[in-house]
Amino acid sequence: MASSSSPTTLQRSDSIADKMPDALKQSRYHMKRCFASFVKGGKKLMKRENLMNEIEKCIEDSNDRKKIMEGLFGYILTCTQEVAVVPPFVALAARPDPGFWEYVKVNAGDLSVDEITATDYLKLKESVFDESWLVKIFIQEQYVLLKKLKESYLFFQMFCRAKDEHALELDFGAIDFTTPRLNLSSSIGNGADYISKFISSKLGGKSDKLEPLLNYLLRLNHHGENLMINEGINTVAKLKKSLMLAVNVVSTYLNTHLMKLSPRVKETMVMLSEVLEAPDSVKLDLLFSRLPTVFNVVIFSVHGYFGQQDVLGLPDTGGQVVYILDQVRALEEELLIRINQQGLGFKPQILVVTRLIPEARGTKCDQELEAIEGTKHSHILRVPFVTDKGTLRQWVSRFDVYPYLERFTQDATSKILQRFECKPDLIVGNYTDGNLVASLMATKLGVTQGTIAHALEKTKYEDSDAKWKELDPKYHFSCQFTADLIAMNVTDFIITSTYQEIAGSKERPGQYESHTAFTMPGLCRVVSGIDVFDPKFNIAAPGADQSVYFPYTETPKRLTKFHPSIQELLYNEKDNNEHMDTLRKEKPIIFSMARLDTVKNITGLVEWYGKDKRLREMANLVVVAGFFDMSKSNDREEKAEIKKMHDLIEKYRNSELYRCIADTKGVFVQPALYEAFGLTVIEAMNCGLPTFATNQGGPAEIIVDGVSGFHIDPNNGDESVARIGDFFSKCSTDGLYWDSISNAGLKRIYECYTWKIYAEKLLKMGSIYGFWRQVNEDQKKAKQRYIDMLYNLQFKPLTKKVTIPEDKSLPMRLASLRNLLPKKPASLGGGSKQKEVTETKPKSKDGQKRNDVKAGEGEVKEGLLAAEASERMKKVLETSEETQRLEKMKIAYGQQRNQGGSSVRNLFWSVVVCLYICYILKQRFFGTYSVQED
Predict the structure, then answer these.
(1) Per-residue exposure over 363-388, b if at least 16 CB sit within 10 Å of its own CB, e if not
(2) Residue 623, C-beta contacts closer than 8 angstroms, at least 6 positions apart
(3) Nearest to 17 by CA among 137, 104, 110, 138
(4) What DSSP string describes 838-907?
């Protein structure tokens, strides 16, 4: 746009590099002081809050500081996410809008400004960490240097690579230049709609442009049977002619299965004819929703204990289990509807593929196949982790799974093909490990793939990319970030629950956006990892179970059996472990429910309410953080039953609790400092309860402020509590206002946040991106070669550094197995006790002697049988794989003991060589730094 920009904002045509000199001229004296302060401490990495603190120290006069911060320089600072300080330069990574990044370098001496590339900025950032790396070599990681000379040499190489001008750079943007991109930040997350528009534009014009669609229709088959057209219709002209005849009479060229529902068949033929005549995105969307493209679906969720009972709360097992199970139920229901409407006799199949864990801790995670409750054709398929030593029995942390994933993919692929008897039509991954496995399998089979990250670890730990070496022994981020990059770039589409997951907000980058450009010094420099304007990004929010969370007005469905306990919980005048204080029944209730942690900000809400007299007079406050205390039980089985009952009651009673709050004309408040999605917000709105929710995160997208609910600022309690109070004041004067917000909230849910909508979107993506994959087949192959190199040359060597845990259960299981052996028979072993009995036994008469002989023969016979059983059991133990492994460990241990003297000598010379290398490094690099600083 050609319009002039205001002093405090930039237009799209403006560049921060162009505007920075003008910003620095506004108060050159103060700018010189500020930038001198920035570089004073030497090399460092600064965040926005650090910058603001320095500004406050350098500009002491509040009026001067306010004037600068309200000017152009203040605006640029608010856009700055990070600053790399390498004296005399200060490099700013600025983000004026979601997805848009600029890099500027300022000389603190003369305030000269240069625009730099992402590569230049990352190099400066890497240099901040070089010296700290060298210190680590001397202090924190001496034990590594003292292990082997080989490992010391590797660390020396790694340090040198951090300053290498030719370090490995990953630039996925360079091989994605032909892929169309969105232009506006507001368009991010609407990839399928954009692809549909782009495809319709490519199909328009001459008939030869329609050949990709013809080829796609020819490829649609199930178990080798064509579903739309057969090989006889091999040109666009033939297809058009056949469709003209088939509108009135079903063409013999069309698949006979479609004759079962002739009205819908005719509609589909008309849609296809219209697309061939004049393609547009609306017609194309309708057509793809009718095409029989997806029947068999594979969903990967590898880590943790994936099951339907007794798994929540176990390591690495949480909300993703519920998400995937609800996803499967909705997906199968939608597939059954579509297949029936298409007149086909096929049955869909959905497999959730996860890890089989032999040591299942009382769950069903050691069962290979398990039917999913509430479905007819969906199952959990479990595949074990297998190493050269056999099947891994115990649980493995999600941070340590990488060495097993390639073999897991191969084994899972074989089992899936065996069960489906054909290739799947769609593969969906979950989390880093599941997404990588899905990428490997989809690439091998040539199948459309989607990924769901749920949570990307890179954004959870500050500077986890630059500090990867420090965190790698525990978290293996080198593997994880590489796997994330591979999966992001291989997949055909990416599903997120919110916009903020992709591109964040005005103030902070999104989880995916943080992978745009980053560095892992000494490993690789990612100058273009993922582009949030890529049309592969799609927002498909999950819903709540509407059989449980339904409006308070649906009286026949209400769970009245919970009403007495809820009334007791809310209005009992006696304090106990479940509640404290009493409520006045004539007042509406402000309700909040979350676990008690800092981020959920429940204590903040209580403080707001306590300080505001007006709100206390108008409404009660109810906060729920839990119902049962399992620690009161000492019995393991009782605890399991209490937990099971707790889960059921929490699900059903919570939903009725929402509705009981709605009966009082109350509200639900979600005051979190940050909420990634906001499932409780959707649950409350499903029940017809007006909702106030944080403006930090996903709830800001769920609620249309002032229409279907209200946004509150968790960092401004006075403003938030005033807004809640204003709502109740208006409700007291307008009897219809509460109902209008309640109904608008329900309308918002039904339009955007149900599992049915989610399933429809997912199947639409599978169809459209399947076609897009075929159209861009050549480009995808070229990109895949690039990714294959990254996988084989970087990821696989990194996985070999992840320690494969020993099977800790081996000695215990061997001991328990040996306990099954019968004890040595007394009659054969000549034990001392038996000898004593024999010696003290009195002499008997002849009849007694005969009985003793028979008894002795019986004992001998039993002893022989027991001895035979004992020998068999010993043979089993001796030939078992675990016993052989144990013997090998004993032998290896003995060899190590015999070589003790040699090991000491090797260690001594390793120490000498390592210290010499450290001395050379110190002289070389510390000397260089001191000269530059002088």
Answers:
(1) bbbbeeebebeebebbbbbbbbbeee
(2) 591, 592, 593, 602, 605, 606
(3) 104
(4) HHHPPP--HHHHHHHHHHHHHHHHHHHHHHHHHHHHHHHHHHSHHHHHHHHHHHHHHHHHHTHHHHHHHH
Instruction: Please tell me the predicted confidence (pLDDT) of residue 633.
Output: 40
The domain that holds 743 is classified in CATH as: 3.40.50.2000
Q: How many domains would you assign to the chain? A: 3
Instruction: Report the candidate in 280, 299, 770 with the shortest Cα–Cα distance to residue 536.
Output: 770
- In whole angstroms, give the CA distance from residue 171 to residue 175: 8
Are 467 and 386 a contacting pair, CB within 8 Å? Answer: no
- Out of 73, 89, 116, a domain closes at 116
451/429 Cα distance (integer angstroms): 5
DSSP string for 16-83: HHHHHHHHHHTTHHHHHHHHHHHHHT-SEEEEHHHHHHHHHHH---HHHHHHHHTSHHHHHHHHEEEE
Q: pLDDT tens for residues 458-479? A: 988 889 999 999 999 999 999 9
Domain assignment present for 932:
no
Do 395 and 449 fall into the same domain? yes
Nearest C-alpha neighbor of 134 from the set 927, 844, 922? 922
Handedness of CA 878, 880, 884, 886 (dihedral sign): negative
Q: Do 325 and 376 belong together in one domain?
A: yes
pLDDT in tens, 4-25: 444 455 554 578 988 999 999 8
This prediction's pTM: 0.79
Is 694 a domain residue?
yes
Q: How far, in Å, CA of 107 to CA of 87, rounded?
A: 8
Query: Which residue, of 736, 770, 799, is where some domain finishes?
Result: 799
Beta pairing class for 100-107 and 113-116: antiparallel
Q: Is residue 237 included in any domain, yes or no?
A: no
Write out the E strands in 52-185: 80-86, 89-97, 100-107, 113-116, 169-171
Q: How confident is the model at residue 139 (pLDDT cuts 50, 70, 90)?
A: very low
Sign of the dihedral through C-alpha 925, 928, 932, 934? positive
Q: CA-based diameter of the chain, in Å? A: 126
Same domain, 470 and 609: no
The verdict on 722 and 782 lying in the same domain is no
Closest CA to 85 of 119, 24, 153, 39: 39
Residue 804, by phi and psi: left (phi above 0), alpha (psi -120 to 50) or beta? Answer: beta
Six-digit token pair at 267?
């509609």
Q: Whose CA is closest to 338, among 766, 760, 770? A: 760
Q: Predicted confidence band at 132 (pLDDT cuts at 50, 70, 90)?
A: very low
Q: Which domain holds residue 486?
A: 296-537+758-799
Angstrom distance (rounded) from CA 181 to CA 510:
18
Does residue 608 sit within a domain? yes
- Side chain identity, residue 226: N
Shared-domain flag, residues 566 and 655 = yes
